[in-house]
Write a structure and sequence with these properties.
- The protein is an alpha/beta fold.
- The protein has a single domain, classed as Alpha/Beta hydrolase fold, catalytic domain (Rossmann fold, 3-Layer(aba) Sandwich), CATH 3.40.50.1820.
- An eight-stranded mixed β-sheet has the order 1-2-4-3-5-6-7-8, with helices on both faces.
- Helix 4 crosses helix 9, helix 5 crosses helix 8 and helix 5 packs across helix 9.
- It is globular.
Length: 292
């Protein structure tokens, strides 16, 4: 049963927003970390309540700082995230839990694998990114996407202005946003975005990501494309990876890099699948893999 639009107050006084999906009382707890710019409602693009009920999964989806219902956190780094996750888990009285991170959320799953392994049962990353500072890994990213990402640290004020405009366009001309997204995607992803329910969910997701303004999304992207404050090679617990070989948001080179540097990784690569399609088509198998 869905329990939506919740908030807790963190030890530093910030509010953290989150949604819960699936059976709350006896479901196996799994945290879901969204991409960027995105928010706690993102999982609805890929899975649904029926799937979670069938698998017996209680999915907890928090908003990262500055997005959705979560307050902005100045000077945030990747390593700060596990503190928020632990605070939420403690609030929900969860000793241990699985973690599933999608796209830019995969970095936060990796951070938790590194910093709180004693709290984590299994960790999975779908369509995850790798360090943009490593040579050649980001070469095959869609040009427009890459330019937008680079603005987050080269011209943060312009990045925030574009994000603000993006939020306005999703309200005034949502079909234009969808058309632009379709033009930049490989065939496998285009077929997913052509689905009306995905289009509606995508527009809602962008609007929710920018609910509190563009600072959170801009900072989240800046962290992703600049020097990370952690090394995935230091992760000791197993991490499961799923990646599409035609991904143009997080190119397949990124998937191979993470599979190589995380010593206990188990990676699955999918020919002819993209950034979205690999998750949409394999969501049940992915979640089942992370269940104990």
């Amino acid at each position: 049963m869905n329990n939506l639009n919740q908030q807790i107050t963190l030890p530093d006084g910030r509010k953290l927003g989150f949604n819960e999906y699936g059976p709350a009382a006896d479901g196996i707890p799994m945290f879901y970390f969204h991409g960027s710019p995105s928010a706690r409602i993102e999982f609805n693009l890929f899975g649904n309540e029926v799937l979670l009920e069938t698998l017996g999964v209680r999915l907890i989806a928090p908003d990262r700082p500055g997005m959705g219902l979560s307050d902005f956190q100045p000077n945030r780094r990747f390593m700060d995230w596990s503190n928020d996750v632990v605070a939420l888990a403690d609030h929900l009285k969860l000793d241990r839990f699985a973690i599933l991170g999608y796209s830019g959320g995969g970095l936060y799953a990796a951070v938790c694998a590194l910093t709180i392994p004693e709290r984590v049962t299994k960790v999975g990353i779908v369509s995850g990114t790798a360090p943009f500072t490593e040579p050649n890994l980001a070469d095959n990213i869609n040009k427009d996407s890459r330019n937008f990402m680079d603005l987050s640290h080269q011209k943060p004020w312009l990045s925030r202005m574009i994000l603000r405009m993006m939020g306005a366009v999703t309200r005034l001309a949502p079909n234009k946003v969808i058309a632009n997204a379709l033009a930049a995607l490989p065939d496998a992803d285009r077929a997913i975005v052509a689905l009306p329910e995905v289009q509606q969910g995508f527009i809602a997701m962008v609007q929710e990501a920018l609910r509190k303004g563009p600072r959170g999304a801009q900072h989240d992207t800046r962290l992703m494309v600049t020097e990370w404050d952690f090394n995935p090679a230091d992760i000791e617990i197993p991490v499961y990876l799923w990646h599409g070989e035609t991904d143009q948001n997080a190119p397949i080179a990124m998937g191979h890099y993470m599979a190589n540097v995380i010593r206990n990784s188990q990676a699955k690569f999918y020919p002819n699948e993209g950034h979205l399609s690999v998750f949409k088509k394999n969501v049940e198998e992915i979640i089942q893999t992370l269940l104990e």
